[in-house]
Design a protein that fits this description.
Blueprint (H helix, E strand, L loop, with lengths): L2 H8 L5 E5 L5 E6 L3 E6 L4 E7 L27 E2 L23 E8 L5 E7 L3 H6 L4 E9 L3 E9 L5 E3 L1 E3 L2 E3 L6 E4 L5 E4 L5 E4 L10 E6 L5 E5 L4 E8 L3 E6 L1 H8 L10 E8 L5 E3 L4 E12 L1
Antiparallel strand pairs: 1-2, 2-3, 3-4, 5-11, 6-7, 7-8, 8-9, 9-22, 10-21, 11-20, 12-20, 13-17, 14-15, 14-16, 16-19, 17-18, 18-22, 19-20
């Protein structure tokens, strides 16, 4: 839909407008009395979010992020769907699925009585997506921006047989310094450690960081909390419909190889991702839906 048509149909005075951003990509710009956010229509990708009562964003976006058609964006909250990580059988298919690099349509917007702003996007099917996902289904992302950021990823099986999906909101959270934070809520959880030889371990105490971390915590629906002594705040990640949590930092060597973190960008972010992966992939019966929802909020320490 052209920019003018988007604004005419879905724009909201003083709260929501659609703009052309870097790389010619289209963005929803949300700015209400409670919070601000940007959402790229490519990938339904929330790129930034800041509550008005916070000096720093809650969602981190790299200063060196690249914006181009068909390319993923470093930072924000990428949508991984309909698989997480590498495809089980097709090495040529994109890691984390195709949803984060294809266009989504805006299908609804609204100003809520709470002062929050709501927007819903639906993934656009193409010949390419049907080649990689030959199942009749609909996937939507509903986002509500206020003092917190709420996101619901809704998958509906429109076919006549079960489908199995992996999914994630691969969210980058802004922090003061990776070496000075800890992540609470995963104590005692089993996880798959993907740094070096893949092993299964059990989390002992809070998650802290002194090098690369890439872990898939399984069989956990726990709320996670990032305690950030430098920014003097807690970031709370409360989820439903998710049975896995990924914690990730590339640390310096891997970040340098990626090229879009900048010299020290990796120090200012940590990914705490709400996921369904490994033994927690989701089977959706014909005619039914599955919703994975997450709320991100911040409070003073």
């Amino acid at each position: 839909m052209p920019l003018a048509a988007l604004n005419n149909r879905f724009g909201l005075a003083d709260q929501l407008k659609f703009v052309e951003g870097p790389g010619g990509l289209l963005f929803a710009e949300i700015d209400n009395a409670l919070g601000t956010a940007y959402l790229c229509l490519q990938g339904a990708h929330i790129t930034t979010f800041r509550p008005k009562d916070q000096d720093e964003p809650v969602i981190w976006l790299s200063d060196y992020a690249k914006f181009a058609p068909g390319k993923s964006i470093r930072g924000g909250a990428p949508v991984c769907w309909p698989w997480f990580g590498a495809h089980d059988t097709e090495a040529g298919f994109p890691g984390h699925g195709f949803a984060r690099t294809v266009m989504w349509d805006v299908t609804q917007s609204g100003a809520l009585a709470s002062g929050e702003t709501e927007i819903t996007l639906t993934l656009v099917e193409t010949e390419q997506t049907r080649t990689q996902w030959p199942h009749k289904s609909r996937v939507e992302l509903k986002v509500v921006v206020g003092r917190s950021l709420k996101a619901e990823l809704i998958t509906t099986n429109l076919g006549d047989a079960d489908i199995t999906i992996g999914e994630a909101l691969h969210t980058y959270l802004q922090i003061g310094d990776i070496a000075e934070i800890k992540v609470l809520g995963l104590e005692g959880c089993e996880y798959v450690d993907k740094v070096g030889a893949v092993t299964r371990r059990t989390q002992d105490g809070a998650v802290t960081f002194d090098g690369e971390v890439d872990r898939v915590y399984v069989n956990t629906e726990a709320t996670c909390v990032i305690e950030d002594s430098r920014l003097k705040r807690r970031v709370i990640i409360a989820k439903r419909g998710s049975r896995s949590t990924v914690v990730w930092t590339p640390w310096t060597e891997k970040a340098d190889k990626m090229g879009d973190f900048g010299p020290d960008g990796w120090r200012k972010m940590v990914c705490v991702e709400s996921v369904n992966a490994l033994e927690n992939v989701v089977v959706i019966p014909a005619g039914q839906s599955h919703t994975m929802s997450v709320e991100y909020s911040a409070e003073a320490l």
